[in-house]
Hints:
With 359 residues, chain A is mainly α. Chain A is 77% helix and 0% strand.
Amino acid sequence: MTTQDLARERAQVHHHSFEALRQRPVVLGLLGLAVLVTAVVAGVAMGTVAVPVADTVAILAQRLGLDVPATWAASSETIVVTLRLPRVLTALIVGLGLSVAGVTFQGLLRNPLADPYVLGTASGAALGAAIGVLLPIQIAWLGLGLTNVLAFVGALAAIAIVYRVAGGGGRSTMTSILLTGYAVGSMLAAGLSLAMYLSGAQLRQIFFYLLGSLNGADWQSLLIGLPIIAGGSLLILARARSINGLLLGDDTALHLGVDVRRERAFLLALASLVTAAAVALAGLIGFVGLVVPHIVRLVVGPNARVVLPLSAIWGGAFLVVADLGARLAGELPVGIITVVIGAPVFVLLLRRYRAGYQL
Amino acid sequence: MNARGLRVDIEGLGLRYGQADVLVDIDLHIEAGERLCLVGPNGAGKSSILRCLTGLTEPTAGTIALDGELLAGIDRSAVAQAISVVPSQVDLPFSMRVEEVVRLGRIPHENPFTGATAEDHAAVDIAIARVGIDKLRGRDVRQLSMGERQLVLVAMAVAQGGRLIVLDEPTVHLDLRHQVEVLELLGRLSDDGLTVLAVLHDLPLAAHFFPRLVLLDEGRLVADGAPSSVLSPERISEVYEVDPRFVPALA
Lengths: 359, 251
């Protein structure tokens, strides 16, 4: 038996252990929901001041409209409802959005290495945020900080520029969109560097944003971000068929009845919107949109109709857990945690790939 | 399996890119259930005809009708239900299993919200059985040989349920045994009643497996009919500019 045979054999064994899940993706979804709920409860209960799990569950149940007698301390309710719940839910929705956007960009670009920031949204958002930090004015709009609003605008502006320069989704190939994204992203990154150079004492604030953090999460921004991310994700899910059609390339997608121009434009716009909202809420959080879809695809195969909802669930759970880790480690930026977990997992996957796995 | 093939009427078809005439005044009528092969040198316009017929390219002149209805007036998903195109290569970004690729053929029938139905799953099973690749079903497509991949793509086209199957050089990269296997499969599909339209470069194989050949040269239709009448030694030397003895089966 050669080394290659052994590797194939080993991969085969792994395939078998995943086989049951692959046939029943619903199980993986339910498992993900269980993990998600547990993570949310843990995320709300744990922190510098621990709230008993029973109280946490009771407070959450009451907020969901259940008739639960209030037996907890008033301070617990304040901690849970005002401080931790918006943060945990923001982590959930950001993780969900980044994962859904990741699946979409990977499908559209037919590239498993694409992430939600691939078309320059990251640099656009970061530059917007930096400008927000540097402006000597403080405008609150609908209770939102200027930084978040400008990050959102920056991300959308970046993608709009990429789209215009590349000549729209129809005539241009995804390669030209990708290259334009890289060029525009680099220019915006230079602008960001300049902003950071000029920022002086506020450098730390910009830096914090670049690393990604859920520290500033509150109900107002969550309530504005949530419909954008949830709505965008649902609309993407409704186009899962088109993402599948594009797997075999543009010509085949057309032959399968997919209106490639229109669908690609829609999907690009939706995924960009979701990414922009996620970035505005939490800064640049890396690896979630790359690693979560990868692992899901590894287990259940590439059917977007299955991969999208599963990535949404597991992406949400992953970021809730990562944020809990970040808080428990003394308020580290969560972006560091996701990369610390994400990068080794990714390397592991690539090693598997060489050992016979086909990503 | 008994299907009614699609009738195709192409009249006065022309295609220009800038100053270059790619297709000039092509008239081609394909009866329901017919098996026809386009042959001709590189650049003769074979693939361009297929691109016009399958809606990838808008012709600059002439009309194409499917069962008497103008192609230009049929919406894309209806065309996808009528015409199955076998992709010329698989270049998958992700690992996919054979049955997952075959299931892609059901996209034109799928409800965008609810996904594949029992009917779609049945069509996939039938296509896999018809093409005879049951054994490959759970295998990763990227681990298959070129010949096996080609069969998977034909199965996908069969699952798509088109009444016309279009193939652009389906035997390229295949060894002789797999070439014959694919061409025999096309014979069985046309026995089922489907219309089959292919482009081939191998003249002896085309002559053997197709009752009707259409020879193209420089965008024009040169000859149309039974292989023996289309591929005369004089025409071969004229169109291909080679000694006809290089095509032994015909010499």
